Amino acid sequence: MTDTDLLVAGAGGGLCGALRAAQLGLRVLVAEANPHFLQGNNTAMSTAMVPGAGSRFQRAAGVEDSPARFLADIAAKTGSTADPVVAEALATVSAPLVEWLADVAGLPIELPTDFGYPGHSVPRVHTIAGRHGSVLLSGLAEQAGRVELIDLLVPARLTALRPSPEGWTAVLTRPDGETEEISARAVLLATNGYGADPALVAEHLPEIAAADYHGSEYSRGDALRISTELGAATGFLDAYQGHAGLSSAARTLVTWTTVMHGAILVDESGHRFGNETVGYSEYAAMLAARPGAAGWLVFDDRIHEASLAFTDYRQVVDSGAVRRATTVAELAAATGLPAGPLARELAEAVAPDRFGRTEFGAGLTPPLRAVRVVPALFHTQGGLRVDEHARVLRPDGSAIPGLYASGGAAAGISGHGAGGYLAGNGLLPALGLAYLAATHAAQVPSEGEGTE
């Protein structure tokens, strides 16, 4: 008999898989390397945005949506380069997932409709009050703590896997170097990507390698290393989520909701350099390429008030990083930006503009505010190839029995580079693939390596 039915390596989105597996009667062990995971992993650092196409929350708000419409948006944003099998699986499960998060995981799911995110043709990005991942993760952890079938081992890092007749033998390593072997019928790799490994980032993501990394220090590519040694296939290793809105002073995210409400981004010469509404991910590399690799988000009191719903933005405000002025000249003096170019950019911030931006909200009206921002790498989007059940695949397309991957450990649905990233493309694969993996693991008999 194995020690556990399902070993989940990673207590971020992996907790979703743990809860789903326990709901279906599996014994689950969650091993997490980070002793401070409730604040320090990428799920906790997110804005808790989870797409759900066709959910009851959308219907209640009068929003018409479907998995097919979501898939069309993914295709448009990625240039039809996203993995079609994984994209369809996640689009299909997205609405049941957010409803499950409310009904079973007990999260206070809500659907913001006061603004749209780049690439989403309708409001479908669900969140929770406060719009911060630490609240979402705490909710999942609290719920997991109430379930007898779930055990949590922290800190313990998965460092090796060996196939066994009953499934897998996993080597878990403590910070002091002590190791423990755990037998499991199935393993879910939910250890995120490789953003904390500078060598891998330089190899696969050179355009963003010099930018700040704003993610978990434990995202070291463990799943890639362990699984490629087992013959797993990888894909989309050049894909990532960047962000052009990290406060340089607060080291906290200035949410892109400021842009979607009408803010503009200027470089340190006071000039805009593109259509900010195309997406915050691809804008990170664009900002990184500007002189000084920094800029200023400029907005007004109306946008400030609308952005206070986000915990991240409130933290930026509380840090004192937001400058405020009653005139353009005063704002230029407060930021050190050249007054002439800044004034011209504000005057020309009307749709349609020279970059093709078609929406500026109600326009910018003094008093004005500004926050200095730098580009950042948030997490990688490429990883292990998986199928519609989140099973890890070999290069020939066959599944490695009993081995699953989710979130940044798996090849996601953002296509290549940064431009295909849609809001929620991080959490949907993290939660959704974990949910699909647990569901499949509960439906298949015990299977050892080499069997199907």
UniProtKB/TrEMBL annotation:
Full protein name: Fumarate reductase flavoprotein subunit
Residue ranges annotated for the FAD-dependent oxidoreductase 2 FAD-binding domain, each copy included: 5-416
Keyword Flavoprotein among UniProt keywords: yes
One GO MF term attached to the UniProt entry: steroid dehydrogenase activity, acting on the CH-CH group of donors
Species of the source: Amycolatopsis bartoniae
Gene3D superfamilies: FAD/NAD(P)-binding domain, Succinate dehydrogenase/fumarate reductase flavoprotein, catalytic domain
Keyword line: FAD, Flavoprotein, Oxidoreductase
The keyword Zinc-finger is annotated on this UniProt entry: no
InterPro entries named among the record's database cross-references: FAD-dep_OxRdtase_2_FAD-bd, FAD-oxidoreductase_2, FAD/NAD-bd_sf, Succ_DH/fumarate_Rdtase_cat_sf
